[in-house]
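S2.1 Query sequence (YtxH domain-containing protein)
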Amino acid sequence: MSNKSNTIAAILAGAAVGAAVGILFAPDKGSKTRAKLKEGLDDATHNLKDSIGASSEVLREKFAHAKKNLDGTYDDLLSNMSYKTEEVISFLESKLADLKAQNAKLQK
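Output structure tokens follow.
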């Protein structure tokens, strides 16, 4: 587990222990304690949804940027391949011309 995961796990464990101790020694009535717990849970749920939404937006932006870079790289690769293909064809044509010339000398 990474250091960050250990820290998060420790924080969550501490929060759970703190909540349990708080409930056991709470001076309020059960209905008030339940209302506070529900409010805390609602806040935590809302915060988690916000965090997930922000994280997913960041991921979407990173994937869009990566896709754009990949598309550009692909286009550059195709362009370079086309240029290299022309070089190879020119080289082969010149070699073919040389071979034809050598063949013509041999046939005389």
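The chain is about 95% helix and 0% strand. The chain has a mean pLDDT of 83.
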